[in-house]
């Protein structure tokens, strides 16, 4: 006989009654931030002769950008480059080795050498890594070009960033955090950081009543003071929360009867990031681990964008699956840690690359990507109180036969209930003469036709190959 089994839900949507928590004037407190000094040095620091130059972050990378290992390293002299190269990947001439660190010798890393070639559109030239100044001119310090022992594993823009990183995970009360994505990300980054440069905080929230909201404000202030001064190179915030299925509101907590209550996204975000936490959100990357209703209702997505404008994160990522399962994000998060947090790429530049390696995610959910930008006119910021705007993009994976134009085919045929019975889709027209892709049920005597329509509004097709890729919908 068929057996049933009750298990804990892993998705994050549900039904909750709307709530207004701001019943009286909310108290405001100063941020009370304190400076937190690092007390733990690098556990095994590379004994490197670093050439003293100011870089954009004020610190050099800790590991060689070619092999991601440490050892004896030499730093690029370019003031806007923080890369270092180890003596295993690059052959340092004997006549130069004793002069490293002296003001007269400069070093140009292979990445900067490639960029200089591309800038002047020159053909590949011999790589003279070490130069010196003679009569006001920069000339090679060696007779022979420098030989690189390493192989071409990384892009020319790649680094091994060593700047401090803050990871924050806010968890709605009652949700399970075991094996969570932020913990996976923290584990990946631990190989490249120490406790002084990698901070991880996991916080459970519940502000479903006025008293609980006041308690949360105190807790948020204490967390902000514990984190201290905002000197982080990257700040990544995860919010694990349920979304209300009929409105797209976000769960705030439990009321006096223990029932879930939800508030509009803009209220939720301002309650969650109270006081000193608000400044930490600026220029951060936020992942909303919530189900699709948040971004599927016009009112909720408009409210959510208002919150983004107020809080000013650099990027915000949300997902459109009705019952979103965060476990499908693991490949994406690991790739994100490498490409963005370790190699130093901007998220907006590599988002499609991250989606390409996330095989489970692209079958499970559309991805919504929001980027905060300053509105300008003639290259100058608009003279308004808040010149920020939000660019919203929706990425839908398409496959000509499995997800025509980004539309997932139903598991069962609506007419005969046969399973996975769809033929290869073909381009055709419906009764209104609209261009569609037609998938036909292959079950005998059924021949039900399922129509998949082109996206509404402006979009761009990013092809992975001739049969699949991404539909990038703008203006979300």
Plain-language structure description:
The chain has helices at 94-97, 110-119, 181-190, 210-227, 265-272, 276-281, 293-296, 298-311, 330-342, 347-356, 359-364; strands spanning 13-14, 17-18, 73-75, 84-86, 105-107, 130-134, 137-140, 165-172, 198-205, 234-240, 243-244, 250-254, 260-263, 285-289, 315-319, 367-374, 376-377, 380-381, 388-399, 426-429, 435-440, 449-453, 459-463, 468-474. α3 (181-190) packs across α9, α5 runs parallel beside α8 and α9 (330-342) runs antiparallel to α10 (347-356). It is α/β, with parallel strands linked by helices and 476 residues long. The two termini are 48 Å apart. The protein has a nine-stranded mixed β-sheet with strand order 9-8-10-14-15-16-19-24-23. Strands 2-13-12 form a three-stranded mixed β-sheet. It has a three-stranded antiparallel β-sheet with strand order 5-6-7, with no helix packed on it. Helix content is 22%, strand content 25%.
Low-pLDDT windows of residues: 1-9, 23-58
Count the beta strands. Answer: 24
Residue share in helix: 10-25%
Distance between the termini: 48 Å
Determine the strand fraction and express it as a percent band: 15-25%
What is the strand arrangement across the widest sheet? 9-8-10-14-15-16-19-24-23
The coarse overall form would be globular
Q: Mean pLDDT, rounded to whole units?
A: 82
**Cα Rg:** 27 Å
């Amino acid at each position: 006989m068929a057996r049933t089994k009750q298990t804990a839900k892993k998705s994050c949507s549900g039904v909750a009654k709307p709530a207004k928590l701001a019943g009286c004037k909310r108290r405001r407190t100063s941020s009370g931030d304190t400076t937190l000094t690092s007390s733990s040095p690098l556990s095994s620091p590379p004994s490197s002769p670093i050439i003293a130059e100011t870089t954009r972050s004020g610190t050099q990378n800790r590991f060689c950008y070619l092999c991601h290992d440490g050892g004896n390293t030499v730093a690029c002299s370019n003031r806007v480059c923080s890369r270092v190269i180890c003596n295993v990947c690059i052959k340092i001439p004997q006549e130069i080795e004793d002069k490293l660190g002296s003001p007269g010798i400069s070093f140009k890393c292979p990445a900067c050498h490639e960029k200089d070639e591309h800038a002047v559109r020159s053909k590949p030239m011999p790589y003279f890594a070490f130069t010196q100044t003679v009569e006001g001119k920069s000339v090679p310090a060696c007779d022979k070009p420098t030989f690189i022992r390493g192989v071409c594993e990384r892009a020319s823009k790649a680094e091994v960033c060593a700047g401090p990183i803050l990871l924050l995970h806010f968890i709605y009360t009652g949700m399970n955090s075991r094996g969570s994505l932020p913990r996976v990300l923290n584990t990946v980054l631990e190989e490249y950081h120490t406790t002084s440069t990698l901070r991880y905080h996991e916080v459970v929230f519940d502000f479903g009543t006025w008293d609980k909201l006041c308690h949360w404000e105190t807790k948020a202030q204490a967390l902000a003071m514990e984190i201290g001064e905002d000197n982080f190179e990257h700040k990544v915030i995860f919010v694990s929360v349920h979304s209300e299925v009929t409105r797209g509101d976000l769960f705030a907590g439990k009321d006096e009867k223990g029932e879930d209550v939800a508030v509009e996204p803009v209220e939720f975000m301002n309650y969650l990031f109270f006081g000193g936490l608000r400044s930490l959100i600026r220029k951060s990357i936020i992942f909303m681990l919530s189900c699709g209703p948040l971004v599927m209702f016009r009112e909720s997505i408009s409210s959510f964008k208002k919150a983004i404008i107020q809080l000013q994160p650099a990027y915000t990522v949300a997902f459109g699956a009705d019952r979103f399962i965060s476990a499908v994000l693991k490949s994406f998060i690991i790739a994100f840690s490498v490409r963005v947090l370790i190699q130093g790429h901007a998220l907006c530049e590599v988002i499609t690359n991250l989606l390409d390696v996330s095989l489970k995610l692209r079958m499970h959910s559309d991805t919504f990507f929001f980027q905060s930008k300053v509105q300008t006119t003639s290259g100058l910021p608009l003279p308004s109180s808040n010149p920020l705007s939000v660019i919203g993009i929706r990425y839908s994976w398409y496959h000509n036969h499995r997800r025509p134009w980004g539309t997932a085919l139903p598991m069962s045929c609506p007419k005969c209930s046969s399973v996975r019975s769809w033929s290869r889709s073909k381009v055709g027209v419906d009764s209104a003469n609209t261009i569609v892709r037609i998938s036909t049920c292959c079950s005998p005597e059924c021949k039900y036709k399922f129509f998949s329509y082109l996206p509404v509004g402006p979009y761009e097709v990013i092809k992975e190959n001739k049969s699949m890729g991404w539909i990038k919908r703008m203006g979300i």
